[in-house]
Write a structure and sequence with these properties.
By secondary structure, the protein is of the alpha+beta class. It contains 14 helices and 16 strands. The protein has helices at 3-6, 12-34, 39-60, 88-132, 210-218, 267-270, 300-305, 307-310, 314-336, 375-384, 425-445, 447-456, 473-482, 495-509; strands at 137-139, 170-183, 186-193, 196-203, 224-232, 247-257, 340-341, 347-348, 360-363, 366-370, 389-397, 410-418, 469-472, 513-520, 540-548, 551-555. A hairpin with a 2-residue loop joins strand 3 and strand 4 (196-203). Helix 2 runs antiparallel to helix 3 (39-60) and helix 9 crosses helix 11 (425-445). It is elongated and about 130 Å long. 18% of the residues are buried.
């Protein structure tokens, strides 16, 4: 049988594709080496290239890059005018060079095969070690609810519950891999769950094989990890961990879900404190705290493009928990004051407040709009429907194309409505006590969350009085004028002046929160009740604002 009959059948298209893939991988590996990247980063590319070369050899019957052999019985003719046969001496030289070249190629081939064999052996050893020591480390099978352990979910301890009084206990925790680093023959990893982080450490020993240390340091960040180990107290508090007075001596380390895609940004960068505090008034400053590759800072646009990752930061986790608690406290207090929670329609046939822009839509051939306030339905229920006191927590939609802190197209509104027995001060008393209840509740129930927010977005503690301060509009204008700020009793307050008034009241009365009422007629809507105790020349409305610097909420 001839060599042509035994050679593998070539597929030119496949050979060309393999050649291009191998060349691209070779370029990537070369670039990585030039950039002095550690071998761990480009080694997967090398393994992929070696595997492609094996496919190339199986397909073509020769090694990738092997020079084409001259056809047999066609010796290269020497140069010369008459193309005469070369001398015996030249033939010997050429034969010697050809033999040396063939020897070099053979040596390279053997070295390549040995290298490939070593890499295969290395991979087989790691796979074998992982199989033999799967109880110590490795990738966990997919959670498919196939089995239910005896302890169930109670087997896991929450990272936030780890404390010094648990020293010596064996704990099982689960969380995102925040950071990992190898130091000598040891591994240090920081595990994060919601607001809390804990350091886990492991060193080579009789119980911890070298392969386990390598595995721990090579798992991609943000993978979900199960760590089982003994809780100990370190000699010094662990910097960068919320559970700084404890750490876990790892006994087993398993990856529940491995992060496969590259991270758009590092979580460490997303958790860095703000360098600039944005203004409390006016339009948003898009330049403040923008992305900075040198400082490792993540800008707002990058965060919003990858919101599901940005939500993992302790500050954002805390903001959502504080928001949830605000609604809980709002609901708790009003229920205790005999309010009834209602749920009003959000698809309406017309605007609920005149003069405001609404989002319009087609409702089965009829014009409709999204609700921009539950005002009419609240009044219908409280004053006309006999409920007397109602409240709602729900979405509000306003088509206000303004990029300021006072304009939102969509937000969650906390609304209340109540019947008045004889004087609107009854409403002010309820609202004042409501906010004090909410402020107290946040301090008592969200202390840890507020600290996580403060670490990234610094703020001062809120000051407020047990009995909410109430001043009228004229007094507020007078305070501004006394501080050198131009403000007439019958002109509306600008956003900047509201902020200045808040600072003045804070300095004078030691409170960030106060109520201001008796606004002049010219700056209030038509439906506000007139004040019967003021002459027509100085006509006022019994409207009021809740001012909690820098937050202002209007009400009537």
């Amino acid at each position: 049988m001839s060599s042509e009959e035994t050679a593998p059948a070539e597929n030119p298209a496949m050979v060309e594709e393999l050649t291009a893939q191998i060349a691209n991988l070779g370029t990537s590996i070369s670039d990585a080496k030039k950039a002095n990247q550690p071998k761990e980063e480009w080694d997967p590319l090398l393994q992929q290239m070696l595997a492609l070369k094996v496919q190339y050899k199986e397909l073509t019957g020769k090694d990738f890059g092997q020079p084409k052999q001259q056809e047999e019985n066609e010796p290269k003719k020497p140069k010369g005018e008459n193309n005469e046969e070369a001398t015996d001496k030249n033939k010997e030289k050429r034969a010697k060079k050809a033999a040396e070249k063939a020897a070099k190629e053979e040596k390279k081939r053997k070295q390549r095969e040995e290298r490939e064999a070593r890499e295969r052996e290395k991979l087989e050893k790691l796979a074998s070690a992982a199989d033999k020591e799967s109880h110590l480390f490795g990738d966990s099978p997919m959670v498919q609810s196939a089995n239910k352990s005896e302890g169930g979910v109670n087997r896991w301890t929450k990272i936030g519950d780890l404390a010094e009084d648990m020293e010596g206990q064996t704990v099982l925790v689960r969380g995102h891999l925040h950071t990992s680093r190898g130091v000598g023959k040891g591994a240090f990893v920081l595990l994060r769950s919601s607001l809390f982080t804990v350091q886990c450490v492991a060193f080579e020993s009789a119980d911890i094989p070298p392969a386990m240390i390598k595995y721990m340091t090579n798992v991609p960040v943000e993978s979900i990890i199960d760590v089982c180990g003994i809780l100990t107290i370190p000699e010094k508090p662990v910097e960068g961990a919320t559970q700084s007075n404890v750490e876990i001596q790892v006994k087993s380390y398993h990856c529940v879900h491995k992060a496969t895609a590259p991270m758009p940004f590092q979580m460490e960068d997303a958790c860095r404190p703000d360098t600039v505090r944005e203004s409390d008034v006016g339009a948003y400053d898009h330049e403040a705290n923008k992305s900075d590759s040198e400082g490792g800072r993540v800008g707002q646009e990058t965060r919003l493009d990858h919101r599901w990752i940005d939500l993992r930061t302790p500050a954002n986790q805390s903001i959502f928990r504080v928001q949830s608690m605000v609604c809980t406290l709002f609901r708790e207090y009003l229920l205790s004051q005999d309010f009834v929670e209602i749920h009003t329609p959000k698809l309406l046939s017309g605007a609920s407040e005149g003069g405001a822009d609404v989002f319009t839509l087609d409702y089965f051939g009829k014009p409709a709009c999204l609700s921009m306030s539950p005002q009419l339905h609240k009044q219908m229920a409280a004053a006309c429907g006999g409920f007397e006191r109602v409240f709602e927590i729900g979405p509000v939609f306003r088509a206000e194309n303004s990029n300021t802190r006072r304009h939102l197209c969509e937000f969650t509104g906390l609304d209340l409505e109540m019947a008045i027995m004889e004087h609107y001060d009854e409403v002010l008393d309820v609202i004042g006590d409501l906010f004090v209840y909410m402020f107290d509740g946040l301090k008592e129930r969200c202390g840890r969350e507020l600290e996580r927010v403060r670490e990234q977005h610094g703020f001062e503690d809120l000051e407020y009085l047990r009995k909410t301060l109430k001043i009228d509009y004229a007094t507020g204008c007078k305070l501004l004028r006394e501080a050198g700020v131009a403000q007439d009793d019958y002109d509306d307050l600008s956003t900047e002046n509201e902020k200045k008034l808040g600072d003045i009241v804070k300095e004078k009365y030691k409170t960030d929160f106060f109520i201001m009422d008796k606004y002049p007629l010219a700056v209030r809507p038509f439906y506000t009740m007139p004040d019967p105790n003021v002459s027509i020349e100085n006509f006022h409305r019994t409207a009021f604002s809740l001012i909690c610097c820098p937050i202002v909420t209007d009400a009537t």
